[in-house]
Design a protein that fits this description.
Oligomer: single chain
Strand content: under 5%
Shape: elongated
Radius of gyration: 41 Å
Strand order of the largest sheet: 3-4-5
Number of strands: 5
Structural class: mainly alpha
Length: 420
């Protein structure tokens, strides 16, 4: 109140031209309101008491006198006209409202936030030196700007998609008898728990999305704020309600959902594959440890024979006797030979790579690895990357299903998602 409603000497001189207390007080209140927030006093409007007392103290009037001023509509109109001249302002014209609408559209193109849109309208009107219209007028301008921005975003998103492709998207909202549900529900209900069948299910959904031929780069045509709003609206809209939208809005929401689902399912498939590989090697290490535990008696037996062998050889060396004769006498040469295959098996099992142990689960891995590798196109920043050669070898002669979702390995052991 101190910053906006403190009257200057010039203000007081203008106020003193009014004779009666209630007219001076009412004139002063209108002057303050037309400065901030920049609007005229409403019919029978009573300002907040704190503001009324603050202004009344400055003009030497009783705050209760304002009730008489509020009932005199003609006086208020005369004062409004005089204050417009004094403050060098005017009522909002059609050009002002058009400029406010353009500002609302520009803001709504970036964000769907109502207060932000309203703030842009108010700022534009103030910059043009016009008074603010009624609050419902500002609200209508904001709603119109948001609706226009939404329609422009929808048109921008789908304008390059062929009509037949857009019409085919409507079938996603219909129940597919082959799966007993809508394709949208099927896409959204993708399994999340790591598993061979679940990963295959993800790759099937990704392959289905590619048949729709929706370019993911369409997303960059729309601001992030408007895109996020479109995604939120699509997430909250059931299939039966989306069918009631006009074609432009419905198709735009479907296209946005298809792009978003393509990104999500790709991320989910990559993440699930990594988890399955991690689980595979964890299980391999656990099996290796379990085998070591089972071989403990055999290991102890082999170590005892090794100790006896060393003891026999040391005794032969100390006594100057033939080492082989002493070894055969105390350990038995034939016993050592019989232990050779068992020792070889123990050494091989102990030195076995986790990769070799993991390969024992080939039957399980084969259920999903082929589908995963064929679901994506792999690229590398390295020339003649051996990882790409390995992937090509694994794919073998299986038919490829390349598409817009790509994974580009940064190194032979790491990969990142691009374009999806």
């Amino acid at each position: 109140m101190v910053r906006h409603y403190s009257l200057s000497p010039a203000d007081r001189l203008e106020i003193e031209l009014r004779r009666r207390d209630h007219n001076r007080l009412g004139f002063a209140v209108q002057l303050c309101l037309m400065r901030c927030p920049g609007r005229v006093l409403g019919a029978e409007e009573i300002p907040p008491r704190a503001m009324l007392r603050y202004v009344a103290d400055q003009v030497g009037a009783d705050p209760e006198a304002f009730e008489l001023y509020a009932r005199r509509e003609e006086t208020r109109r005369d004062h409004t006209a005089r204050l417009m001249v004094y403050l060098d302002t005017r009522s909002a014209t059609a050009q002002d409202r058009r400029a406010a609408l353009l500002a609302a559209i520009q803001t709504a193109a970036m964000s769907d936030d109502g207060p932000a849109i309203a703030s842009s309208i108010v700022t534009t009107l103030r910059e043009r030196g016009s008074l603010l219209p009624a609050i419902d007028t500002i609200e209508r301008i904001g709603l119109a700007g948001r609706a226009i921005a939404r329609r422009r975003a929808e048109r921008t998103l789908i304008e390059d998609i062929p009509l037949d492709a857009l019409q085919s998207l409507d079938r996603l909202l219909e129940v597919d008898q082959s799966i007993g549900q809508t394709r949208f529900h099927w896409l959204r209900s993708a399994p999340e728990a790591p598993g061979a069948s679940n990963l295959v299910g993800l790759t099937e959904r990704i392959a289905f999305l590619r048949t729709l031929e929706i370019d993911q780069k369409l997303q960059i045509r729309i601001s992030s704020g408007r895109w996020d709003q479109m995604i939120r609206e699509g997430n909250a809209t059931p299939a039966w309600l989306a069918s009631d939208f006009n074609s432009s809005r419905r198709h735009a929401l479907i296209v946005a959902q298809v792009i978003k689902l393509g990104q999500k399912l790709t991320d989910d498939a990559v993440g699930m594959f990594i988890k399955l590989m991690g689980r595979l090697f964890t299980q391999a290490n656990n099996r290796k440890k379990h085998r070591h535990m089972e071989c403990r008696p055999d290991t102890a037996k082999a170590l005892r024979m090794f100790l006896d062998t060393i003891t026999a050889l040391q005794s032969a060396n100390d006594d100057g006797r033939n080492a082989l004769e002493v070894l055969d006498q105390k350990v038995s040469w034939h016993r050592l030979l019989r232990m050779t295959p068992e020792l070889e098996s123990m050494v091989e099992g102990n030195e076995a790579s986790p990769l070799v142990v993991a390969a024992e689960q080939y039957a399980t891995v084969n259920k999903y690895v082929g589908a995963f590798l064929q679901a994506f196109t792999f690229q590398s920043a390295r020339r003649h990357d051996p990882l790409l050669t390995a992937i090509s070898l694994l794919n073998g002669s299986m038919p490829r299903s390349g598409g817009p979702f790509r994974i580009a390995p940064r190194s032979p052991t790491s990969a990142k998602l691009i374009g999806g």
